[in-house]
Amino acid sequence: MPPLGWFLAQGMIPLGPDSSDDDEGPCELPDGRLVCGPHGLTVCGKCCVDYNFGNDVGADYHYTAGFAEVESEEDAVHPPSTGPPPASASHRQQARATPHAVAPDISAPGLEDILNPDPLVEHPKGTGRVFPSKFTPPSSAVTPQELFSGRRKIMLVTRYVLPHDARTGLIFADGACLDNGQANPRAGWAFWHGTGAAGQQLVASGRLEKKGPYGDEGAQTSNRAELRAVIAALRFRYWPGERFNRLVIATDSEYVVEGATNWSRNWIRENWTRRAGPRSRQRTEVKNKDLWQALLGQIEKFKTGGMDVEFWRIPREWNTVADAAAKQAAAESDEGYDEFQDLMGINV
């Protein structure tokens, strides 16, 4: 397992099955903020602590539409006649826009909103009440970087958003498997979720665990790794807490996109079984059932928080960052974890 400093450099902390509340007490991050020791959270529902008293929350938050450097006036964001005055200087929104762009009406979230008092520890199972949809770009030729040219900064991390809709964010995800289908396959997953303070790409990755979130044994396959990448991306943060109402997952996996938006509807109706063959009357359990249940369950959870999840199937050549990181993770010399691991992101 990498040292804690590696996780912090990527803006994340490891949460495994052995995480506990034994090491209680605050921990000071490199930027001076206080977080709980076991989970790295400013507001941690599991430890029942709130270290906001020592932190200036929400102070570093702004939105950039495209790459223009045109400053808008503060009262353009909060007009005196209609909008409420900002509670304090630390919660003011600094809006940047192109000359014809409209500043987004978003209140700057504090860390208590971003992290959410309800930690993403449990893995709810999808019930079929909510399904994701496909994202439709205005043109098949437009790349994700071209379309999501807006920039939205939360603390020290910058997200990719639509130029005129800062509530729609973008994440790239991919999985890979070396020696797929052979004797000793090794799978890895990765997702690219933004840039850091120095402009570096923030990519989270890992080896595919031998067991799923509910303890089921899982094979090392590319399909399972692709699913795992999306689950990791969704559970990395409580995205509705960053004021997103739509999160677009860009992936080159037809298996993930069609399975999440289309095939899973029939699987749930048939109690997670499918025909053994085109003309067969026998039914077998859907492959990777545990990860599909976890994926749909997380999407349902976010829906209750006011955020939709959409999938954008992109060409492989548009997903090189996540693809390279997933292959690198699969090639790691260690055998990886047996039990399912969670990575919960923090901004450092």
From TrEMBL:
Gene Ontology MF term list: metal ion binding; nucleic acid binding; RNA-DNA hybrid ribonuclease activity
Domain of life from the UniProt record: Eukaryota
Organism: Rhypophila decipiens
EC number(s) on file: 3.1.26.4
CDD domains in UniProt: RNase_H_Dikarya_like
Keyword Zinc appears in the UniProt entry: no
Known catalytic reactions: Endonucleolytic cleavage to 5'-phosphomonoester
Name of the top EC class for this enzyme: hydrolase
One Pfam family named in its UniProt record: RNase_H
Protein name: ribonuclease H
Residue ranges constituting the RNase H type-1 domain according to the UniProt record: 165-331
